[in-house]
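Protein in question quoted for reference:
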Amino acid sequence: MKKIFYLVFAFALLAVKPLASQPYTLQDCRQMALENNARIQDMKLGEQISLQMKKQALTYFFPNVSAFGMGFQASNPMMSIDMGMLGSMELLKDGILVSATAIQPVFMGGKILYSTKLANLGILSSELFTQRTVDEVLEKTEEYYWLLYSLTEKRKTVSLMKNVLDSVEKDVQQAYNAGILGRNEVLKVKLQKNTLTTKNVELENGIYLTTMALAREIGLSVDSLDNFEISSPSDLVFADPLEFYVEPASVIDQRTEYRLLDMGVRAAELQKKIERAGYLPKLGVGAMYYYENLLDKDNWNGAIMAAVQVPISDWARGSFAIRQKKLEEDRARIQKEDGRQQLLMQIRQAWGSFIESYQKLLLAELAVEESEENARLNEDYFKAGTVSLTELLAARGFLQESYDKKTDAVKDYQIAKSHYLQVTGR
């Protein structure tokens, strides 16, 4: 029985392990960030808070109904009337009072209406803030993903170069044993290998830190990342940036930031109207019904009422408050226009970076081709004895450098592309 249990447990581990160590693609990371990122979850809670504020504002359209009840028993009568020869009359020794009141605002200067509109605007703003956070999180997720891709590719390059140097070291050691090369040539190869080892240590630390940063963005715990790794894309396509170009002014209205600036102006307008409404006449109606037994007699009664409040002395003070709100509205309009100019500048800067990254990528690919040919020729010439070991090692160093520069160029291109698409509302 125990053997069967151990076999089942072992098979279960084998079944779970591949899932735990399954590499994450870029799309996986984006989807997990949308579902698990703490900042996005926080903003969605903000949306719920705004919705509750709207519901609270809507309640002011309905009557305010209240009930009141009181009963008392005094040790001595609260009132005593001396009636001369007839003695005295004691009153209010005990009693009951119960009432219900309903008050309905009829006109509050438009304050309730404008407050409701402001609450609706708050909900829309919360949704836009959430969308802006989503865009930022996805952009940061892609940035960490491509940085991790870059570091991983560089680690592969270091491993490849170490294998090549192991082969060179073997040839150099044989030549040294045969008396063809000196001891210093052997030390040159060892020094080059030590340099690669140092670089590999730096890469491992960078990979560790970047993995934690990416895991945090996609909502994973940074305490258990032993099996975390990304899946490097095998079908990278580097499209010409001209395929993605759009006129900046044509997409500015799609930017979440610009829509938030526009809502800031609308909010300032509503706040000015709410302030003005506070100094207009107010009208309300109500009804009351009550029961009382204070004089040892049941008494039922009801009443309807209407009230009008007209501010008089507040008008002078209110004019300054309304003027303040008007200035805040003007400031919001200035901020909107200034924000528009900043967004246009951001789009143009992102386009320039996109173009630059593409051109650097083309140059990096050309440099790799040339470095590979140069390394191949120097290896042939070294075997033929026409170039020195120093020249061969230098050619290998140039090759590694060109590989790293291409890897960085791929990372920069992908990040620049993602950023340009994000700032153009795509």
Remarks:
- The longest strand covers residues 94-107.
- The CA atoms of residues 169 and 190 lie 8 Å apart.
